[in-house]
Every structure is written in structure tokens, then in C-alpha cells.
Write a structure and sequence with these properties.
about 475 residues; alpha/beta; Metallo-beta-lactamase, Chain A; Rossmann fold; 2 domains; 7-stranded mixed β-sheet; about 30% helix; about 20% strand
Length: about 475
């Protein structure tokens, strides 16, 4: 059996891992978009033939894991796409949004390339490709073993508590003389998520493909996350009379922020300022989340029973219309603006940052992982100048970071997630979805925990299992 890494190798985007079994069955784990600066050409070519892939198994709906599925279909993939029901519902809104953003951005990208004397790029995919991809999706609940083909490959989804519907993938492959158990972690969530259930243990594996986003990091202690958020709101909106801008993934992170603000408002602590959820995608994602309350943890269920709705309070405004979004930028009054994307690479958030980054009254609050090549990564790193839409801006706004909101487990939480395994029975761990220096540290931590063979593959590398 062969395993090839076509994305998320020594980086955190573009998740794609191709399995070719002894009998020639080709199974693609995730099909994500590369995100960040200088990734345009990476998304144009797969370096394998989409028409030869038999099955696609999707861990979750984040664009760096699902964002190239419509292009895979456009280029000839006709097989089934397996995922959880919540992932399918999120993909419907997220992939259509992705198609819209690409169409909007392609002219600007190609204009720049023409000025540089470089060839223009073709559209990755359109709405029709998204609809075709959605028609190929087949949903399977957590804990329900299913077969890809008659007697060779079976699959089990277990909950990772990363985002709504996120799943780890356990594959059992029958070869002529043995049974191979391969596990793909997808993205590993945190054990005490504000919205989702706990991550689930998974069956013993022979080979593990494991994410490593925070392989060298421990998240800050979280004695009172709401108190931390309230301090930032007070200092920005009350003391400095500025705007609080929060780039946030439209799925899970935005809803977690809404829930925290809802609790503060319910307790009478939130200042009387307007809160804008300025993202059509986030508005739709909130509705999807309400539909899948089977994924909620007991604490959230109890709060909803008491409060009625964890995602609605006075002065909270959901914005979809583009003119309403532009009007927010013209406001002089203090407010909170939560908008996608989480890495500040696309969508309305870039406009909000451009309009506020040079004013010292304002704060940009980063609440999750940002790739180092992204706008969010530059702000998080402390760069004093950033480029937005090709123009350079001086960073005068305060930049705050709250990693307690991260949906990715830190290295201790990832080790705890893997503690259901007997390390002596694991033949190899492959680290993906992480920056190389962090992976090196996580490899050492895994080896200290008893996982003897830990390997960090490079992009396009192929290994034999």
C-alpha cells in the first residue's frame, strides 16, 4: 500500500493525502485549498489524475481541507464523497462562498500577473462544480462503520471536536496476507470546547497520519476566557471609543464568540454597543449549527434550555447585504465587528482591517491559528506594516491574541487525544498540517510518549506502508 502527501506537508493548508491499496483502489483523504500568499499556482494542479481517484473521504468542511473538492470534480473525479451530515451541510454554504470569492478575486490576481508578465490563471471552479460535488456526497454518522467496496476497505468516523461535524477517519484495509489499520486525525479539537462534545477515542491503528498545527505550543491557561474578552471590549470600545475587529472563521469560531458575548450580555456585563456579524457565510453557518444540536456539549444544551438561544441577544446584528456591510465602516461609534476569514485572507474582514488598522483607537483581536504567510499571521507576528489589496498600511491599531479560542489542540491535548493508542503497536506516525519547526518539536514529544517511529513527509513525497 502506498501513501502520498499532496498537501499540508510541512505547512498547514491544502490537506490532501492519497492512498493506493495493494489492489489499486485510490482513496483521497481531504481535498483542501492552499491558502496564503503565493499559493495561486499550487491550487491549479493536483499532481495526480482526479479521474483515477475512486473515493474521497472528507474529515471536515474547513476550506483548507475541503476547498478544492469542486475542482477535483471539474477535473474528472466522479466517485462518492463520504463525510458526516453536518460536514455536508457546511460544505454546501462554504464551497459556494468559496466559488464566489474566487470569481471575485481572479480578475485582480490575473491583472497583477499580466503586469508582471506571468501567464494568467484559470478559474479553479464555479458554482456548477460545487453543485456537482455536493451531489456526490454521501453522509455517514459517527460510530457507524461503512464499506467503500465489497471486501477491501471499511471506514469509521469518530468525533474530533474541531468544528461542527469534524471527524477522524479510521480505515481498515484488507490485503492478501494482512489487515492494515490506518488512522487519519483530520484536525484535532480541544477537550473542553465551548460548543462541541469531547473528542472521541479511536480504534488501535498500525499507521497514523496526525495533524501538528500546535506541535510546539501549550495554549494559555483559561481561568476566565469571558473576562479576558470583556477586558478587550472595555479597553477598546469604552476607554478608547474605538472599534474591535475580530477575524474569525465563519464556522464554530464565530459562534463561539457569539455565545461568549451572549453570556456576558445575559450577565449584564457587556457594554451597550452594537455587535455585527458581518459575514453572509457566518449567518448561514449559525443556522446550520442550530440544526445540528446533536453535536453540542451538555453545558451548551443546558444554557439553551435556560436562555432560549445562545446565538442571539440585544444589539447583535447579522449582516448579509453588502451595502449594510459598507455602512459599518462609515460608523464613528464604537462597535464590535466579527467577520470572516479567520486568517484575514479573504472576505469582508480585509476591508474592515484596511479601514481600521491605522487608527490607534481600534483593536484587531486574533482568536485562532493564522498561517505565517497570511495577513492574520503578519499581524500576529507584530509586523508594523502589512499589505492589504496590494497597498501598504502602517499598523497603529492594537493587536491582541486570544489563543484560548483556538479549535486546534496544543501538543499536550494532541498527546492526550492519541493516548487511546498502544504506541508499541503503531508502526509509523506521519506528521502533517504543521510548520516544520513545530513538527520537529512534536516529533520529540511523541517519541517521549512511546511512539518510536515519527516521520515528517515533504510535499509530494510517497511512502510505502
Amino acid at each position: 500500500m502506498k501513501l502520498q502527501f499532496f498537501g499540508a506537508a510541512r505547512t498547514v493548508t491544502g490537506s490532501k493525502h492519497l492512498i493506493t491499496t495493494q489492489r489499486g483502489t485510490r482513496i483521497l483523504l481531504d481535498c483542501g485549498l492552499f491558502q496564503g500568499i503565493n499559493t495561486d499556482e499550487l491550487n491549479q494542479k493536483f499532481h495526480f489524475k482526479p479521474s483515477e481517484v475512486d473515493y474521497l473521504i472528507l474529515s471536515h468542511a474547513h476550506i483548507d481541507h475541503a476547498g478544492l473538492i469542486p475542482r477535483l470534480v471539474r477535473k474528472g473525479f466522479t466517485g462518492p464523497i463520504y463525510c458526516t451530515p453536518a460536514t455536508a451541510d457546511l460544505c454546501r454554504i462554504m464551497l459556494l462562498d468559496s466559488a464566489y470569492i474566487q470569481e471575485k478575486d481572479l480578475k485582480r490576481i490575473n491583472d497583477r500577473r499580466e503586469r508582471q508578465g506571468r501567464p494568467v490563471l484559470e478559474m479553479l471552479y464555479e458554482a456548477a462544480d460545487v453543485e456537482q460535488a455536493l451531489s456526490q456526497m454521501k453522509t455517514v454518522d459517527y460510530g457507524q462503520t461503512f464499506r467503500l467496496n465489497q471486501d477491501e476497505v471499511s471506514v469509521l468516523f469518530t468525533d474530533t471536536a474541531h468544528i461542527l461535524g469534524s471527524a477522524a477517519v479510521s480505515l481498515t484495509v484488507q490485503e492478501d496476507s494482512r489487515e492494515v489499520r490506518l488512522f487519519f486525525s483530520g484536525d484535532i479539537g480541544r477537550p473542553h470546547d465551548k460548543i462541541l462534545k469531547m473528542p472521541e477515542p479511536f480504534p488501535q491503528a498500525d499507521y497514523i497520519i496526525c495533524e501538528s498545527t500546535y506541535g510546539d505550543k501549550l495554549h494559555e491557561p483559561e481561568p476566565d476566557m469571558r473576562k479576558h474578552l470583556l477586558r478587550i471590549v472595555h479597553e477598546t470600545c469604552v476607554v478608547r471609543q474605538g472599534k474591535l475587529i475580530i477575524p474569525a472563521f465563519a464556522v464554530d469560531r464565530t459562534q463561539e464568540l457569539i455565545y461568549a458575548l451572549d453570556q456576558l450580555e445575559s450577565d449584564g456585563k457587556l457594554p451597550r454597543i452594537d455587535v455585527f456579524i458581518d459575514s453572509p457565510l457566518a449567518v448561514k453557518a449559525t443556522q446550520v449549527m442550530k440544526k445540528h444540536d446533536e453535536c453540542f456539549n451538555p453545558e451548551l444544551r443546558a444554557y439553551i434550555e435556560k436562555d432560549g438561544d445562545a446565538f442571539a441577544f440585544s444589539n447583535l446584528h447579522y449582516i448579509s447585504d453588502v451595502e449594510d456591510s459598507k455602512a459599518i465602516n462609515e460608523r464613528q461609534e464604537p462597535c464590535i465587528i466579527i467577520s470572516a476569514s479567520g486568517m484575514a485572507e479573504a472576505g469582508r474582514i480585509k476591508h474592515h482591517i484596511r479601514n481600521t488598522v491605522e487608527d490607534a483607537r481600534n483593536t484587531i483581536l486574533l482568536v485562532g491559528y493564522c498561517g505565517p504567510e497570511t495577513l492574520g499571521g503578519a499581524l500576529k507576528r507584530g509586523d508594523r506594516e502589512v499589505k492589504i489589496f496590494g497597498e501598504t498600511y502602517t499598523v497603529r491599531a492594537e493587536v491582541e491574541v486570544m489563543d484560548s479560542f483556538s479549535a486546534h489542540g496544543d501538543y499536550a491535548e494532541m498527546l492526550d487525544f492519541l493516548s487511546c493508542q498502544n504506541p508499541a503497536q503503531v508502526k509509523q506516525v506521519y506528521l502533517v498540517h504543521g510548520e516544520y519547526d513545530r513538527q520537529v518539536v512534536f516529533r520529540h514529544n511523541l517519541q517521549s510518549a512511546g511512539f518510536r517511529n515519527v516521520y515528517i513527509p515533504s510535499l509530494y513525497e510517497s511512502v510505502a506502508l
